Amino acid sequence: MCMNLFVQEPPNFLVQADLRSYVTPVPVVIQSQESPEAEGADFVDTSDSGSMPGDLVDLTIPGTSAHNGQAQPSPAIDALLERDALISHLQQELARMKAENQRLEAGYLKQLENLRARINDLERDLATKVC
User: Fold this and answer.
1) C-alpha–C-alpha distance, residues 42 and 36, integer Å
2) What 3-state class would DSSP assign to 68?
3) What is the pLDDT of residues 115-128, one digit of tens each?
4) What is the number of alpha carbons within 13 Å of residue 76 lying toward its C-beta?
5) Is residue 22 within 8 Å of 11, Cβ to Cβ?
6) How many Å apart are CA 18 and CA 6, to the nearest integer?
7) What is the pTM for the complete model shown?
8) CA dihedral for 37, 41, 44, 45, sign (positive or negative)
9) Of the candidates 94, 116, 98, 96, which has an alpha carbon nearest to the alpha carbon of residue 106?
10) 10 Å Cβ neighbour count for 30?
C-alpha cells in the first residue's frame, strides 16, 4: 500500500500569499482488525510453573564459551577490549598532540619576542635619524 505523502504543489513559504492557500495535511489513523484477545497473547507468561530459583542464573564463566568449556572471548569481552584499546590509542594521540601544540606555541612566542625586539630596534634607529 503506497500512499502519496507529499503535496503535489507545495507552497512557497517565502511568499505570504502562498501561506494563506496552504492546507495542513491531516493524519489518518487506520484501525487494526485484530481482536482484543489476540493482543494479550504476545506477552510473556510470568506465572511460576514449578521452576527452581536457580534456573534463572547464568552459571557460565565470563569469557568462556558454553560449549566444550574452552576459553573463547565472548563478543561482549571483545567489545570491551576493543574499546579499551581505542581509548588507550586516543589518549596517546591526545598526549602527542598536546606536546606538539606546546612546542608550536613556544616557537610562536619566541618568534613574537624576536619581532618585538626588531620593532624596538627599528624605532630606536628611526628616532636617532630624525634627531
Assistant:
1) 11
2) coil
3) 999 999 999 999 99
4) 5
5) yes
6) 17
7) 0.38
8) positive
9) 98
10) 6
Can you read off the three cell numbers belonging to residue 74?
565472548
Residue segments in the chain with a per-residue pLDDT below the cut of 50: 1
d(CA 109, CA 47): 75
Grid-cell match 601544540, residue found: 101
Q: What angle do CA 115, 119, 122 make, to 5 degrees?
A: 135
Which of 105, 106, 124 lies closest to 116, judged by CA? 124
Cα–Cα distance, 118 to 115 (Å, whole number): 5
Q: How far apart are CA 11 and CA 20, in angstroms?
A: 9
Cα gap 25→5, rounded to integer Å: 9
Q: Is 74 exposed, middle or buried (0-12, 13-18, 19+ CB in 10 A)?
A: middle
Asked whether the beta carbons of 63 and 74 are under 8 A apart, the reply is yes
Which amino acid type is present at position 5?
Answer: L
- Give the span between the Cα atoms of 21 and 23, in whole angstroms: 6
